[in-house]
Amino acid sequence: MTQRMAPAMDLETDRLRIRPWGTQEAARVLDIQSRPEVVKWLGDGPPQLMRTLGEARERITSYHRRSALPPRGFWAIEVRETGVVAGSVILLTLPNAEHDEVEIGWHLHPDSWGRGYATEAAAAVLARGFAHGLPEIFALTHTDNMPSQAVCRRIGMRDLGVREKWYDGPSQVFGLTAEEYAGRA
Fold this sequence. Notes:
Layout: E1 11-12, E2 16-19, H1 26-33, H2 36-39, H3 53-66, E3 73-79, E4 85-93, E5 102-108, H4 117-131, E6 136-141, H5 146-154, E7 158-163, E8 171-177, H6 178-184
Parallel strand pairs: 5-6
Antiparallel strand pairs: 1-2, 2-3, 3-4, 4-5, 6-8, 7-8
Helix pairs in contact: 1-3
């Protein structure tokens, strides 16, 4: 049985369901988080590869804790047609935030790359964040992560240049305000 520490996110798009990770999905979390080609784009410093199912279960519990303050959270991206979890999408307060700045992000298993899942999930979570009153949302990528930068552009985020504000080292920063988002409709 899945434990949830916050109101459940359950958002559907044409092809995806965005929902909390279940503890029974630890093997998939391990499969994603143990891959250098995925983890190299996450966080600061050298990639930290996950090694055990126990670590994966702890990570899922952490995802639930990080989802305790809606509309923020860390969720699974499930492909509705197959039930396979493609990866994760996040909407979280940035580390070292001075003004509660919020970041959107995503990481997918390589078997789900190139299908538009990141763009579809990110667009839905971006809309949800603004619908719940967030004034601005940022996306930070490694400066050489061109695929994620392309997702940022596809979901309408502006390139704000390279900054060294929230993470150690430089990040390519994208942003979108609620007003800009509303003006696109």
